[in-house]
Design brief:
The complex is a heterodimer of chains A (489) and B (482). Chain A has 489 residues and is of the alpha/beta class. Chain A is 38% helix and 13% strand. Classes of the chains: A alpha/beta (489), B alpha+beta (482). At the A-B interface, helix 9 of A face loops of B.
């Protein structure tokens, strides 16, 4: 049977597989064909091993034929950002320093996905070590936005967002430290979900900033995001920061809300005062607010007074943690080691050659803010501001159920447009405070800008507020003016 | 009165004996093939996360309680950053400002290592914190190898106050710490296996001066003896510099056992900036009073308490008690035996004068002692009941070392039952007198000490089995009648 692959979802695939109207092999072949056609332009994948994908697909079809399928999603392909470890595969973080390093173990999320029969469909491009907002910091290739190949897909999970947007795969995994799932999802017109910090185990996610990193799904719709979160979430003894199980099933009764009567949606006044907020993005926001109003939601103004310090705070805390997290890449135990005369030179040469400029910049910054004499002025103060930002959200959630903001001040920008790192950092202004607060947030496609690029909205829920957040996102998705977001590639 | 006051503080590292490493499930095992006790976590592979070992945390809290430390209600791990190949992540997970254990102290007393009496005093403990051990570098010609088996082994750092004034006090403090760790089953403290390591901080100041002198650190001392020697050496070295009007610079020094000298490792200017910050991969630890109370209830007797009990309830001398409590296994051995023995004091004598000497002569560590305590108790009972003579007992004792047989079996096999029957002994007495007229003459002439000669003869004739008291009595009677 033929499927409309441009807009195919996990839940549709699960149904067709169940009804035996399609096989995993057919599904994966269709995606591989499409990827072969589009990849020369999109370059979303760092690695896509056709043989491996088809052998996984065949194994899945065999399981279904023998009545021992691993659940309803057995056989559905999923791309993996190249900073999540899969046993026996390289995991480069789009960095030269990890070019040939093969992971000796599966990340917890990979273990869970495998146990559910998902077909691991290639590794997606990203900003090196997830540091960036455009995917331009990859040491290997520049991924293009499927909506306009002269534009970036966003970052750092740009490869994942572009691959789903271009329908080279059903869905993908990303990681979000300051907006790295939500911003590229918005730029590419797909759904990007960052659950509450600790909902999904980080074991096997190569750390950028440990207190901010969170794995999450990038999907065609909210239902798929809920499905993948259900599969991946839960307490993990290997991640001491993972949250206790709540036994909620996010994909269950997702469409349970008939309207949004009694739901209060918070609009932070600071978000609309941002300098550089694109007029088209503002217009899309207004249209989305109308959708919520029409559904009966009450719009309330809230204030996040410390959000103006979020970017500065983030670049202190995230870089501090990164400077230690990336210290292990020294070529001593694994990875390329440069020949040098002594130990110090070995470190300098290996790390000098292995890391890109942005990574070096952040390691230097992080080292500085932790150094004696500066620690209190930067790191301690940053942690204090972080607490204030967290409190802002707690206060705001007394007045509302979810908070609505833009995802990014602009739509996807052109390659090379933001050559000033500070300009690039400011592109994350709406997403960064979510990670600092640890709460959950989602980016849902909302509109198409007059420049032809998609615009997403961001909905933020309180700690552990995924269930409600996803239901509100789902009803918005069903009621937005534009039903399908399919790029013209 | 010496010219300088000596100020010594120690930093002691002790590996906690646990089933697995601090942050992964690798076995905590010494002496294996290099890099066989490793996994992605303790090798610092990309993407791994630490998961803390509860047993190690509990043992550290126990160590703190044994040393009278305050236990933190809130404690956390931090990252300490520096680049060195023995450290897989190039940062060490340790504790910076909120260690598990706060202030406490350890009692020292008795005779010092040099034979002089120690002052009876408490050496303050500043803190005890928990961290992960690093790997081990081995240098070969032209290259170096790294063994990560040790990387990630739980390691406690015990920091003392600068309360020690001599090498003897430092030695006694180390001994007391080791005893405590062994008693509470926290660590075996085998220094040869690197389970206990010591850094010394030492400074000299003019006698009576208020302000401390310049602190010199001596790193990586791997025996109590080296610690003692290095302190003695450093006192002389620093005094000479000060005597000659020189100034000391804060620095870290190493120690060579061969040359018996310290040497410069690095000066203060080259000190590391470790950039400590809270470990974001681990949650802070909290303890309630009732949790701490529960751990307290499981604590074993302190060596000091055990010593006091041996003296008060088992009738041992202070000296006996000190010898028997110096080693946990030894004290348990005696304790077990004392429960069965009619005279714990006699058992103590046998352990101290015979068993320990014999083990020492044969170079057997106490842990490998082949004599079950029940056998030793039986032997002591045989002697005190008069079943065998003291002389035979020694023979039985050395048989016990070959193992297997009980003293009663050995006595039966060798026919060592003491002869206490007067008529049987009388035969030997008569014989000895008949065979030695010259000595009889001497006795008659008033040289009564010659009776010992006759005792010897009788023992020889009886193959050592005659009851010496009866022999004495009969000899005296016979000779006096002549």
């Amino acid at each position: 049977m033929s499927i409309k692959i441009e807009n195919f979802t996990i839940h549709e695939a699960a149904r067709l597989l169940e009804e035996k109207k399609i096989s995993s092999t057919e599904l994966c072949k269709a995606y591989i064909e499409r990827a072969k056609k589009l990849e020369p332009k999109v370059k979303a994948f760092l690695k896509l091993d056709e043989e491996d994908v088809l052998s996984q697909a065949k194994a899945s079809d065999d399981r279904r034929a023998e009545n021992r399928k691993l659940g309803q999603f057995d056989g559905i392909p999923l791309a993996v950002k190249d900073n999540i470890t899969v046993k026996g595969q390289t995991c480069t973080c789009a960095s030269k320093i990890l070019q040939k390093v093969v992971s000796p173990y599966d990340a917890t999320v990979i273990r869970k996905l495998k146990a559910n029969g998902f077909v691991l469909f290639g590794r997606t491009n990203m900003d090196e070590f997830a540091m960036g907002s455009s995917c331009e910091n990859s040491a290997y290739q520049k991924t293009a936005n499927p909506w306009n190949i002269n534009c970036v897909p966003g970052g750092s999970s740009g490869g994942s967002a572009a691959s789903v947007s271009a329908a080279e795969v059903t869905a993908a995994l990303g990681s979000d430290t300051g907006g790295s799932i939500r911003q590229p999802a918005s730029f590419c017109g797909v759904v990007g979900f960052k659950p509450t910090y600790g909902r999904i185990s980080r074991y096997g996610l190569i750390a950028f900033a440990s207190s901010l990193d969170q794995i999450g799904p990038i999907t065609r719709d909210v239902e798929d995001a809920a499905i993948l979160t259900d599969v991946m979430c839960g307490r993990d003894s290997r991640d001491a920061t993972s949250l206790p199980d709540t036994n909620e099933i996010f994909s269950e009764d997702l469409g349970g809300l008939k309207d949004l009567k009694g739901i209060r949606i918070g609009l932070p006044k600071e978000c609309f005062e941002i300098e550089g907020l694109d007029a088209g993005v503002r217009k899309s926001m207004e249209k989305s607010i109308q959708v919520f109003k029409d559904l009966g939601a009450e719009m309330v103004q809230v204030s996040l007074p410390h959000s103006k310090y979020a970017v500065a705070t983030y670049y202190v805390i995230a870089t501090a943690e990164a400077s230690a997290n990336l210290a292990r890449f020294d070529g001593i135990r694994y990875g390329n080691r440069m020949k040098a005369d002594d130990l110090l030179e070995t470190y300098l040469e290996t790390r000098g050659a292995g890391f890109g400029d942005e990574v070096k910049r952040r390691i230097i910054l992080g080292t500085f803010v932790l150094s004696s004499g500066y620690y209190d002025a930067y790191y301690t103060k940053g942690q204090k501001v972080r607490t204030l930002i967290r409190r802002d959200f707690q206060d705001a959630y007394r007045k509302c159920d979810v908070i609505l903001t833009p995802v990014s001040p602009t739509t996807a920008f052109k390659f090379g447009e933001k050559s000033d790192p500070l300009q690039m950092y400011l592109a994350d202004i709406f997403t960064i405070s979510t990670n600092l607060a640890g709460i959950c947030g989602i980016s849902v496609p909302a509109d198409i800008h007059e420049n032809g690029l998609p615009v997403g909205i961001q909905l933020l829920g309180p700690d552990m507020g995924e269930k409600q957040l996803l239901r509100i996102s789902h009803i918005f998705e069903k009621n937005r003016a534009i039903k399908e977001f399919i790029p013209g590639i | 009165m010496s010219k300088y006051d000596i100020v010594i503080g120690l930093e002691v590292h002790v590996q906690a004996r646990t089933n697995s490493k601090m942050f992964c499930s690798c076995p905590n095992k010494f002496g294996q093939e290099p890099n066989t006790m490793v996994c992605p976590v303790c090798m610092g592979f990309p993407g791994v996360m630490p998961y803390p070992n509860r047993e190690a945390v509990m043992k550290t809290v126990m160590a703190g309680l044994m040393c009278g430390c305050e236990i933190a209600k809130f404690s956390k791990f931090d990252r300490k950053s520096y680049f060195y190949p023995d450290m897989p992540k190039n940062y060490q997970i340790t504790q910076y400002d909120l260690p598990l254990c706060g202030r406490g102290g350890v009692h020292i007393f008795g005779k010092g290592f040099s034979g002089n009496d120690l002052p009876d005093k408490v050496i303050g403990i500043t803190r005890i914190h928990l961290e992960e051990d690093v790997g081990k570098l081995n240098h070969f010609s032209g290259y170096s190898g790294i063994d990560y088996n040790r990387a990630g082994v739980p390691l406690m750092e015990i920091v003392s106050e600068p309360d020690m004034c001599s090498a003897d006090e430092a030695y006694a403090y180390l001994t007391a710490l080791k005893q405590i760790m062994q008693y509470a089953d926290i660590s075996d403290c085998d220094m040869e296996k690197g389970q206990m390591r010591c850094d010394v901080n030492i400074s000299l100041k003019l006698a009576g001066a208020k302000e401390f002198g310049t602190k010199i650190e001596i790193k990586n001392l791997n025996s109590f003896r080296s610690a003692h020697r290095s302190i003695e050496h450093e006192i002389v070295r620093q005094a000479e510099i000060l005597d000659n009007g020189g100034r000391l610079m804060q620095e870290t020094r190493g120690w060579t056992d061969e040359r018996g000298e310290t040497y410069l490792l690095r000066s203060k200017e080259n000190a590391h900036d470790y950039r400590y910050f809270p470990e974001p991969d681990l949650l802070p630890m909290t303890f309630t009073d009732s949790e701490i109370g529960k751990i307290k209830n499981t604590l074993p007797e302190l060596p000091e308490q055990k010593r006091a009990r041996f003296v008060a309830t088992l009738g041992l001398t202070e000296y006996d008690a000190q010898v028997l409590t110096q080693d946990k296994t030894l004290s348990d051995y005696f304790d077990e035996g004392a429960k069965q023995a009619k005279s714990p004091k006699m058992l103590a004598n046998w352990i101290i004068t015979e068993l320990l000497r014999e083990l020492n002569d044969r170079n057997i560590p106490f842990e490998k002692n082949p004599v079950p305590v029940g056998h030793l108790v039986e032997l002591v009972e045989l002697v005190s009941a008069g079943t065998i003579t003291g002389k035979s007992a020694k023979e039985v004792f050395s048989e016990l070392f070959s193992g297997g047989k009980t003293p009663k079996q050995i006595v039966a096999e060798k026919g060592l039952l003491q002869i206490s029957d007067d008529s049987a002994i009388d035969k030997f007495v008569v014989l000895s007198i008949e065979q030695n007229p010259a000595q009889v003459k001497q006795y008659k002439e008033g040289k009564t000490t010659v009776i010992q000669f006759f005792v010897g003869q009788v023992m020889k004739l009886s193959k050592g089995k005659a009851n010496p008291q009866i022999v004495n009595k009969l000899l005296k009677e016979k000779l006096d009648q002549m």
